[in-house]
Amino acid sequence: MIRRDGHIHTPFCPHGSKDMFSSYIEQAIKQGFSTISFTEHAPLPRGFSDPVPDKDSGLALDLLPQYIEACNEMKQEYSQHITIYTGLEVDYIEGFEQETREFLDEWGPFIDDSILSLHFLQTTEGHYTCMDFSPESFEFLIKKCDTVEDVYKLYYLCLLRSIRWDLGPFKPKRLGHMTLVRKFQKLFPTNFDDSNYINLVLRSMKEHNMSLDVNAAGLVKQHCMEVYPPIEVLLRAKQLGIQCVYGSDSHQAKQIGIGKAELDNFI
């Protein structure tokens, strides 16, 4: 069986650790992975203002060539030990689809693998919140949307748009952490069933031939404590024939392989 970690960040991540590429790779080899994808946060689209305080959600565009070069160097250096893909985690941001497509058209030819993720929600025209940045940011969304259920609805409907929108031939083929909206579920518990939205998302993924990022990072988030998506959703995805790819979403080398053992039976 191919052991793959399809979602790993790097020292280029502006809000991550400065662990070296080699530290991530050697930890992956130690954990028994045969394939990994470095999926650094792509530069945010031209004209979009990052709403987080330190403006550090994505890689600076002028550093992108260095990132790609570093990944390619690691491919060569470790070619006898592990397969490495050069990748990006690309944000879908409502209203910036054209800019995102232009970015992908330019840089897609240099990328082996990519993930399409949703972090930013638009509550009023031109006003965005990074949903998963902090409990305070999520609470702000609740106040803007009226209820927790309304935030979930906004998230899933935007996720559906991201799947259906034509971002060109280099659009990412894997959907990132599809239940990220649950990151703060222990602080903001729900009293509703979001399975209808989840099923819509899964069916749309199947229709558009997208694979699923089985993201273990939620397991170690104190206010979440479950995989993105949880096991019952993962099983539905498998029933639909959706390819599932484990991702540690590591921002530190020591996070490589988190949750992998308990997920092996479901991927």
Protein model, in words:
The chain has 267 residues and is α/β, with parallel strands linked by helices. Helix content is 33%, strand content 17%. The chain contains eight helices and nine strands. Strands 1-2-3-4-7-8-9 form a seven-stranded parallel β-sheet. The chain has a two-stranded antiparallel ribbon with strand order 5-6. Strand 5 and strand 6 form a beta hairpin. Helix 5 (148-164) runs parallel beside helix 6 (195-207). The chain is globular, with a radius of gyration of 17 Å. The model has no long low-confidence stretch (mean pLDDT 96).
Keyword list:
about 35% helix; single chain; 8 helices; about 270 residues; two-stranded antiparallel ribbon; alpha/beta; seven-stranded parallel beta sheet
Write the layout of secondary structure elements.
Elements: E1 4-8, H1 21-30, E2 35-41, H2 64-77, E3 83-91, H3 97-107, E4 113-117, E5 120-124, E6 127-130, H4 135-145, H5 148-164, E7 174-175, H6 195-207, E8 211-215, H7 231-239, E9 244-247, H8 260-263
Parallel strand pairs: 1-2, 2-3, 3-4, 4-7, 7-8, 8-9
Antiparallel strand pairs: 5-6
Helix pairs in contact: 5-6
